[in-house]
Amino acid sequence: MSKKVAILPGDGIGTEVVAEAERVLARLNDKYTLGIETESALVGGHAYDEHGSPLPDSTLDLAKNADAILLGAVGGPKWEPLDYSVRPERALLGLRAELDLYANLRPAKIYPALVSASSLKREVVEGIDIMVVRELVGGIYFGEPKGVETLPDGTEKGVNSLVYTTPEIERIAKVAFDVARKRGKKVCSVDKANVLESTELWRRVVTLMHKDHEEIELSHMYVDNCAMQLIRWPKQFDVIVTTNLFGDILSDAAAMLTGSIGMLPSASLSGNKGMFEPVHGSAPDIAGQNKANPIATILSVAMMLQYTFGAMSAAGEVERAVSEVLEQGYRTPDIHTEGMNLIGTKEMGDKIIEAIG
Ligand code: NAD
């Protein structure tokens, strides 16, 4: 069976961090004879420059025909004046929608060596291991009606609609229960059921789905309380499942508990197929300077090996190698603290490959 990975580096530091992740993937491919083939294509601003579209048909076809996609990041000041319809960021929405990547998994895990890089106290963050499961192709980002219209009196009205159907909630709840089964066996479903009818439906459907997953402990929380609890006592959470909008915000908050955005991978799944990418953007402020932390993208490769290819040993090896390199004191600038060994993007890639052996 062929195993194909589409490599879409994108713009800015996307190209730098993906280069390191690709080297890590190649090393694991050899070491574990995974039989993975890769093919690269342009996406985002560079694709617009070359083809007049941030998501050319050839790139979309490659993504559709691959088992997994490894994406860097898109966007940058050069393309900001462009019309929204061809902005680099449209490529992400296009890929998510076209491939129906409905489940976004964002782990927020703290590495012992980085506890001091968090803005919260050691005792609050030590041992954090949270997985945010965010619904990615529905909710208020896609619901109709939407838009801005001018009313007869000349004032304007802006509308977005928070729409969820039973099947959409069922499939994301199932992902959350399945993920929890392999972790701490706890799911906290986050909604605003006291105010928003569509999330009242969300709570009802998640509760019904729980009947098939009774070995998992299910709790419900309002989103405002969840935001507070994430800062107050994040260790209470194992898996958080929530809507597109709430997940967007809560996963960023959860992410920052762990130190740097440069450490955070993500997976967007539709069954086994998925797109794997760092949480961060193209970081124009440090692009081309060998300063970007490639670990988020390298850990995204680990998620790909786990979720798409079921290569658990190879995935575990990446996490172990990252831990080892951090324990040895190597740091890119974003996670650097006094007394540690400051290195660049490429050198971090080298060290991780060395640790894989
Ligand atoms: P950003 O994530 O690119 O950068 C935010 C800050 O974090 C910057 O100071 C940056 O230097 C730092 N940073 C990010 N990744 C880092 C890494 N790996 N190592 C070290 N430091 C890192 O967010 P932004 O500045 O708001 O956006 C820049 C561009 O990226 C914009 O065009 C935006 O639209 C785009 N963007 C793309 C994605 C994506 O492709 N998934 C996500 C977010 C933003």
Overall mean pLDDT stands at: 95
Q: How many DSSP E strands? A: 14
Count of DSSP-assigned helices: 12
Q: CATH top level of the largest domain?
A: Alpha Beta
List the strand order in the largest sheet: 2-1-3-12-11-4-5-10-8-9
Derived from helix and strand composition plus strand pairing, the structural class reads: alpha/beta
Q: What percent of the residues sit in helical stretches (DSSP H or I)? A: 25-40%
Low-confidence stretches: none
Distance between the termini: 27 Å
Topology:
Blueprint lengths: L2 E8 L2 H19 L4 E5 L4 H7 L5 H9 L2 E6 L16 H9 L4 E7 L12 H4 L3 E7 L7 E8 L5 E6 L4 H16 L4 E6 L5 H13 L7 E6 H10 L6 E4 L1 H13 L8 E6 L2 E6 L16 H13 L4 H16 L2 E2 L9 E2 L2 H12 L1
Parallel strand pairs: 1-2, 1-3, 3-12, 5-10, 8-9, 8-10, 13-14
Antiparallel strand pairs: 4-5, 4-11, 6-7, 11-12
Helix pairs in contact: 1-10, 1-12, 6-7, 8-9, 10-11, 11-12
The site of nicotinamide-adenine-dinucleotide has 22 residues, from helix 1.
